[in-house]
Amino acid sequence: MNSCIVCNEHKPAGIFICGQFLCADCERDIVATDVSDLRYRYYIDCMKKIWLAAIS
Ligand SMILES: [Zn+2]
Fold first, then answer.
1. What pTM value is reported for the model?
2. Which residue, 7, 10, 23, 47, has fewest beta-carbon neighbours within 10 Å?
């Protein structure tokens, strides 16, 4: 099981982005979240962390 970069929970299903695990639940949430939703900013911040880790 992998530790999700967004919720930090260990989930059996998900995707890898730049070597970081994103669980299926969070992936679905991100896709369904409206850009005006505060959670969207949180998710974007998490994605930025993934990308920064990938290029450093
Ligand atoms: Zn998650």
1. 0.66
2. 10
